[in-house]
Amino acid sequence: MVYIHWLTYLIYIVVTVSAIVAVLMDHRQPAKTVAWIMALIFLPVIGIVLYFFFGQNTRRERYLSEHNIDLLTKSSVLEFVEQKNLYVPETHRSLINLFTNRSWALPFKDNATDIYTDGYGYFHALLREIAGAHHHIHLDTYIFEDDPLGNLVADALMDKARDGVEVRVIYDDVGCWNVDNRFFDRMQEAGIEVYPFMPVRFPAFTSKVNYRNHRKLCVIDGRVAFIGGMNIAMRYIKGTGSQPWRDTHLRIEGNAVYGVQRAFMVDWCFVSGTLITDRCYYPELKGAPENNCLMQVVTDSPFSEWPDIMQGYVRILLEARRYVYMETPYFLPTEPVMFAMRIAALAGVDVRIMIPMHADARFVEWASRSYVSEIVESGVKVYLYKAGFNHSKLLVCDDALASCGSANVDFRSFENNFEANVFIYDEATALRLKKVFMDDVEQCVPIEDAMNYIRIPYLQRLWESVVRLLSPLL
Fold first, then answer.
1. How does residue 46 score in pLDDT terms, banded at 50, 70 and 90?
2. Nearest C-alpha neighbor of 306 from the set 421, 415, 417, 416
3. 214-256: per-residue pLDDT in tens?
4. pTM
5. Contact 71/277 with Cβ under 8 angstroms?
6. 3-state SS, residue 43
7. Is 135 helix (H, G, I), strand (E, B) or coil?
8. Which among 404, 409, 297 is positioned nearest to 351, based on CA atoms?
9. Cα–Cα distance between 462 and 472 in angstroms, integer?
10. Which among 349, 292, 352, 282 is positioned nearest to 319, based on CA atoms?
11. Which residue, among 400, 428, 431, 432, has the nearest Cα to 96 in the 3D structure?
């Protein structure tokens, strides 16, 4: 028995040391490296389990080849999209070039947007567009819940599939872990092509659990697209048992639909192995608005050497002249974002960030407080949303630029998840989203109370600082 005990201990030491060496050799950001080493050393057994599921770096495994991405971009967008008299404002040229050069996120003009700030408005619009579909419906979502709303959407999709409309659905395997496979089997039997994103099956694909498709996209007939923060679940309408739900989602008409379509097609190639480049999925948009409302649909993935959405946020903060207003449900920012927020605030830019008064995960709330304390010291204004859980991912800057999508201001969205945001270069749209932010401010506690939020006892601050060290893993 003593021999077995010592052998088990020796094996554990070898596994732990091997994991630490692997973390060091991955050349991650120092904060992430330190967080994983601390977890491995100070959380016996639990640290190994966490590393096994969430810490292994599989980014170098190219699930989708650069060749296929190149084909999708050139054949499906450049060949089909002709934009005459495209004007790129000098004010935003560097940001637009950044996204274009990094991920072929082309700027599209002539767009119109509807803004939804609750599930009632969004799902009513979504179901209306599904009912009117004639050729195809492409849906990409993190959560597709088997609840009354999920079944309502599923039934609408199945009706269209039986009518001969092409329906393709991608759902995230981890986001839908609690959904019985029969829910998706029923859709397949009705003629819908359904694929889970990066299925996690123990033990072979356990390390993939850390890289999830967090995008929320829908394209109808290549003419209308939806993008934002809402998944398909009843809580996005009725809230949780303890609080209402607040979110932001956009409906887009115009050339930017091509960008959302391309994002879906890349994911579809990823999950199905089928490369779709037909012209019919990028139809000529007759009757589209004629304006210079520019949009870029920017996607992020753990394959990116430099996180595109995060780089965009940093550049916006550093180039802002008057203000940057942001909403995020989870505030665990990477160091570049923290640096940019501090520099902007110290330079006199009115930087404001809105987070929920109470997060839906206690560890996240604890870790967020230390970051809040740090940015408040540099002059950033913090608003605590008290009218429910604010899941909105929103940015607006200088009455000229706005962004909305699935990316949170946290390590996971910027580094581990597959995300999608639309960046909008248009004064009218920016002012509308600014109003959304200012309306939400009315539902927040005053700044003075937010300051009290960070004036907490020493021991609690110490605990929150310890939890902060684990924020790259949350």
1. low
2. 415
3. 999 999 999 999 999 999 999 999 998 778 999 999 999 999 9
4. 0.84
5. yes
6. coil
7. coil
8. 409
9. 18
10. 349
11. 400
Q: Tokens for 194?
A: 């359904």
Q: Please tell me the predicted confidence (pLDDT) of residue 85.
A: 75
SS3 label, residue 153:
helix
Give the Cα separation of 33 and 164 in Å (integer): 51
Helices 148-162, 119-131: crossing angle, 10 deg rounding: 10
Q: Are 252 and 112 in contact (CB under 8 A)?
A: yes
Query: How many whole angstroms separate alpha carbon 254 and alpha carbon 374?
Result: 41
Cα–Cα distances (Å) from 455 to 255, 420, 427, in that order, read 49, 36, 38
Q: Read off the amino acid at residue 172.
A: D
- Res 10 pLDDT > 90: no
Tokens encoding 87? 């004007």
Cβ–Cβ under 8 Å, residues 470 and 35: yes
d(CA 354, CA 352): 7
**Alpha carbon distance, N-terminus to C-terminus of the chain:** 38
> How many angstroms from the chain centroid is the CA of residue 421?
7
Closest by CA position to 212, among listed 332, 298, 331, 300: 300
Q: What is the pLDDT of residues 93-103, one digit of tens each?
A: 999 999 988 77
Cβ neighbour number for residue 286 with a 10 Å cutoff: 6
Question: Of all helices (H) and strands (E), which one includes residue 214?
Answer: none
75 and 258 in contact (C-beta within 8 Å)? no
At 373, give phi and psi (nearest 5°): -55, -40
434 φ/ψ angles, rounded to the nearest 5 degrees = -60, -40
- Taking the C-alpha atoms of residue 65 and residue 166, their distance in angstroms, rounded to an integer, is 26
Closest to 359 measured CA to CA, from 453, 458, 278: 453
Q: Which residue has the higher pLDDT, 397 or 72?
A: 397
3-class secondary-structure state, position 309: helix
Active site residues: 214, 216, 221, 391, 393, 398
Beta carbons of 236 and 150 less than 8 angstroms apart: no
CA distance 220 to 96: 26
Please, is 81 exposed, middle or buried when counting C-beta atoms within 10 Å of its C-beta (0-12, 13-18, 19+)? Answer: middle
- Convert the pLDDT of each residue in 159-211 to its tens digit: 999 999 999 999 999 999 899 999 999 999 999 999 999 887 654 445 556 67
Distance of CA 64 to the CA centre of its chain: 19
Q: Cα angle at 194 between 222 and 265, to 5 degrees?
A: 40
Rg (CA), the chain: 23
H-type alpha helices, 174-229: 181-189
